[in-house]
From TrEMBL:
Protein name: Lipoprotein signal peptidase
Active-site annotation: 135, 153
GO BP term, example: proteolysis
Upper lineage: Bacteria, Pseudomonadati, Pseudomonadota, Betaproteobacteria, Burkholderiales
Role, per record: This protein specifically catalyzes the removal of signal peptides from prolipoproteins.
Provenance organism: Achromobacter pestifer
UniProt-annotated location(s): Cell membrane
EC number per UniProt: 3.4.23.36
GO molecular function, one term: aspartic-type endopeptidase activity
């Protein structure tokens, strides 16, 4: 996925970001990881598995464990998925870090990648430490439930939406041939 450098020269090799700039994105990813892990520790120590505390008519705090991926994909498998998703998360983190080092002048794109990076690492930590991901945010309407999720998932989802938005806005700026 080649992206133009901030020099505006099409086809030019991307310039490397200044270390301070990359450091800022990595610091934001670290903040997401820390907030994610602190909230998971709180819910893991303050709630019993499956316990729910109603916050709003459509929202509860709860404590759930997910051995799978998004929407509990592969959660019922024998345990191999723990290492598959851990490996995928680590690979994603490495690739995102490399892209952040090579891309600057595109704050929306870098923010999207940073949100995904923080979320991916937050969930990798859970898989390594607990063998599952800790989820605690539960939205529902009547008897319909959205799968429980956590702050890392929020980062990944917001980052993915921002990535799509960035690409759509970039495509609109391209001159029509």
């Amino acid at each position: 996925m080649a992206r133009p450098s901030d020099t505006g020269v099409t086809g030019a090799a991307p310039t490397r970001a200044a270390p301070a700039r990359v450091g800022g994105w990595l610091a934001l990813a670290l903040l997401i990881i820390v907030l994610d892990q602190l909230t998971k520790v709180y819910f893991n120590t303050s709630f019993q598995y499956g316990e729910r505390v109603n916050v709003l008519p459509v929202f509860d705090f709860t404590l759930m464990y997910n051995r799978g991926a998004a929407f509990s994909f592969l959660a019922s498998e024998e345990g191999w998925q723990r290492w598959l998703f851990t490996g995928l998360g680590i690979v994603a983190a490495v690739v995102i870090t490399i892209i952040l080092r090579r891309t600057h002048g595109q704050p929306r794109f870098c923010l999207a990648l940073t949100l995904i990076l923080g979320g991916a690492i937050g969930n990798v930590i859970d898989r390594v430490v607990y063998g599952h991901v800790v989820d605690f945010l539960l939205f529902y309407w009547n008897n319909s439930y959205f799968p429980a999720f956590n702050l890392a998932d929020v980062g990944i989802s917001c980052g993915a939406v921002l990535l799509v938005l960035d690409e759509l806005l970039r495509a609109r700026k391209k001159p029509q041939a």
